Amino acid sequence: MDLVVAKFGGTSVGNGERIRKAAQSVVNEYMKGNQVLVVVSAVNKTTDELIDLSDKAVGKGLTDKQKAEIMAMGELTSIRLFAATIESLGVKSEFIDPYNELWPIVTDSNPLEAKIDFSTTTKKAKGIKDLLNQGIIPVVCGFLGKGPSGEITTLGRGGSDVTAFLLGHCLNAKEVVIVTDVDGVMSTDPNKIEEAELLDKISVEEMRDLATHGAQVLHPHALKYKDPLINAKIINFKNGDLSSKGTKIVGPFEGDMMKIASLHDSPISVIAIVGEDMLNKPGILADLTACLAEDNINIFGISAGQNSITIFVNKNEADKAYHLLHNLVIECDILSSLSLGKDIAMITLVSPEFIDTPGIISNITEPLRKNNINIVEISSSQTAVVVFVEWKDGEKAHELVKEVLK
């Protein structure tokens, strides 16, 4: 039988009617012949209310351990309600919380931002599999973990999403369904632009970047556990149907979740364009990039300053790009001059762990500083850092920064 992991967010279990509707969708999926594992968040706003209540009652005297135990009450309540509702619909269910011997998610001892012990969790998840094989629907607390001494820990904001993808990975689920209060991932926030459209699918990388920069649909940390062989989607609880279309999350594709440090195999040339107060002149960046795009010249990086813009292109296209951009400088009153600089080496570092690693930029740059290697430019996203150094230092710099990923 196929296993479906269904995660219900706080809004989707926001009242008794919604809990029953959610439970019915789980039972319907079970009746199709599938195994179903349910992950449930606290009822909408419960966690915030518990935090507010404890802050007002105890204030600064509240320890992190006490706070984790108090915050956990939301999930401890919601799984009991959900499991009882499933049983009222005629299917056997069992709630699993950190006090249960079958509890799978083991962490370190950090009460509020616990790190998962993946190998131990994978072993413990076998107990959940045994339950599923008995025809029982397990209902598991999202957001929570169990520390080394059996204490309750929490996985941080978005922890229920982490729980769903983690258990889906450990149990080789066919699909992870994130049930929330939107139809899926939109082309933008529909509250800001009415013409926003529902996406049929989105890649793990795209979803991670959207989530990191403010999209509330899914927590980016959860995507570390997205297995490329497991289907995933985001649907609206209003449909009351786990087979609803929603938005598929595809990937990760080969290399997306790997730690990679690569040195571009040929030199990069840097072209610097200067002009007065360029950042406050609309359209300048568009003019520069369009000028090169028309001749099919690829840009590896752009850096903008108050009075300059630096563009990185392949060395074998540098002279052509240089002349094209010079023509633009002559035509544009805002631009003053440009220069073609030294040969540059481009080193790209990729790791899904960058998003959770404070100080990652300094970790990368420190060994270069110690070895007197000058950084021409550096840019970063949530999972990648690109470093430009002089070509003569490229191979040595590559070897040094590779150590950061180990």
From TrEMBL:
Taxonomic lineage from the root: Archaea, Methanobacteriati, Methanobacteriota, Methanomada group, Methanobacteria
One Pfam short name: ACT_7
EC code: 2.7.2.4
Keywords from the UniProt entry: Amino-acid biosynthesis, ATP-binding, Kinase, Nucleotide-binding, Transferase
Top-rank lineage group of the source organism: Archaea
Gene Ontology terms: cellular component: cytosol
The name this protein goes by in its record: Aspartokinase
PROSITE patterns in UniProt: ACT, ASPARTOKINASE
GO biological process: homoserine biosynthetic process; lysine biosynthetic process via diaminopimelate; threonine biosynthetic process
Catalytic activity from the UniProt record: L-aspartate + ATP = 4-phospho-L-aspartate + ADP
GO molecular function: aspartate kinase activity; ATP binding
SUPFAM superfamilies in UniProt: ACT-like, Carbamate kinase-like
Family, per entry: Belongs to the aspartokinase family.
Domain ACT: start-end pairs: 273-339, 349-406
Pathway: Amino-acid biosynthesis; L-threonine biosynthesis; L-threonine from L-aspartate: step 1/5; Amino-acid biosynthesis; L-methionine biosynthesis via de novo pathway; L-homoserine from L-aspartate: step 1/3; Amino-acid biosynthesis; L-lysine biosynthesis via DAP pathway; (S)-tetrahydrodipicolinate from L-aspartate: step 1/4
NCBIfam families: asp_kin_monofn, asp_kinases, PRK06635.2-3
CDD domains reported for this sequence: AAK_AK, ACT_AK-like_2
Organism of origin: Methanobrevibacter woesei
Enzyme class: transferase
